């Protein structure tokens, strides 16, 4: 690399913010994404992204099932620019159910926005996603949304964040007026208020008017005085932004707004530019960190097939970790040592695709027809690189599967092999039952529906699923399986790719075996 190339990559990496929005369904993630695109002038009117039924257009949905239910099963990537900074929003599936995909997507981001509905506070899925972010040390910016309608008090919401997540909430703006009586946003510590004049339906950017502190009392009365008082109280108790604490995942800057009215969205985007971490050196399997300004490297965080059923295609999403990606480059696939030609690189947003010619650290590249790539695989140029495998999450739902029509056994096997490779579902074989009736293991039950829909659409095979009573899985160290065989309340299975997995009905049956055989290490493994 020449010195000039080196500086160019560094500069591009510094300009990247790769984020996810974590929230409970209906908190307003799609609306916020749309509002951000509107601010970035990527769309001229809101209403183009959301995949909910009955809404205009769809960018982020692709599957019939997804459209029917208005949920986003697949993750798309939305890229836009704000104040000279490129923001990549990697979409996490937004339904109440969970899949491994949800978690994997979070491995590809450098920070996240925790979006909270002002009327509901921290909801279940937000907490689950928060736990994954906390585990991976992903810094979080909080946006309390829907301030245009009645909700909890701002102080109570902060209190809830602090007690339930352990993060120190540091307000960057403070609302003037309670939820539902929104009058403006006070910039914390400055006492200046911004008022907003939103347009009908929030379809265009709300006009902002700054009000100086000396004019605010007259304009906003008691609401202003209350906001100033509360803001001062929070500052006096140490709840002020500290970049080091935020980057260490110990505090969260808090914003208020209304995505549907485009209020507070610009402030949030400014914060991403100013505070969110840029793409930085990533740690490899050998514990060395690969700087961003070196040869290209990236890893696959998600593989998706069937987006275009007519072509049976398969897209591998690669997060660029270092160097410049150029379409046509010949890379090395770290897992096999084989060359990988990147002729068909695309920027994929749902069904929309654009050929992508170049990408930088922090960006996401969609490699089409990448049948040899699996989630977690590394691609590199020049100096070898290999990133650690993606964490596998413990499945909690298990069903036996077989083809409804036994003559379709070959397609059935091929289909499951593919879905297992993609990580859509984990396939386990019970020696007692046989490979013709494998066990499917999922983190969330909706994964079974996705399997059934994809087996039908892509492999023309109807699958019959029979739920089991197992709820706990433990990966077994080599040599342990024979010791468990034949014990009551446990089923020993194997993965087609190697490795043994023991299944238990419940904690009691697991505990009973642990008591009877303390020599077997069946402790819950820590998440990576
Ligand atoms: P999601 O992707 O997180 O599931 O949420 P989505 O953006 O689809 O928003 C869920 C609902 O919340 C939508 O209403 C949306 O309009 C509304 N919403 C989002 N942000 C705000 C906000 O700041 N204030 C208010 N008052 N509502 C907001 P819906 O009834 O499901 O759809 P629609 O009838 O509005 O299209």
From TrEMBL:
Keywords: Cytoplasm, GTP-binding, Nucleotide-binding, Protein biosynthesis. Pfam families: EF-G_D2 (PF22042), GTP_EFTU (PF00009), RF3_C (PF16658). PROSITE patterns: G_TR_1, G_TR_2. Residues 14-280 form the Tr-type G domain. InterPro entries: EF-G-like_DII, EFG_III/V, G_TR_CS, P-loop_NTPase, PrfC, RF3_C, RF3_dom_3_sf, Small_GTP-bd. It is found in: Cytoplasm. GO terms for cellular component: cytosol. GO terms for molecular function: GTP binding; GTPase activity; translation release factor activity, codon nonspecific. Belongs to the TRAFAC class translation factor GTPase superfamily. Classic translation factor GTPase family. PrfC subfamily. PANTHER family: PEPTIDE CHAIN RELEASE FACTOR RF3. This is Peptide chain release factor 3. It comes from Subtercola vilae. The lineage of its organism: Bacteria, Bacillati, Actinomycetota, Actinomycetes, Micrococcales.
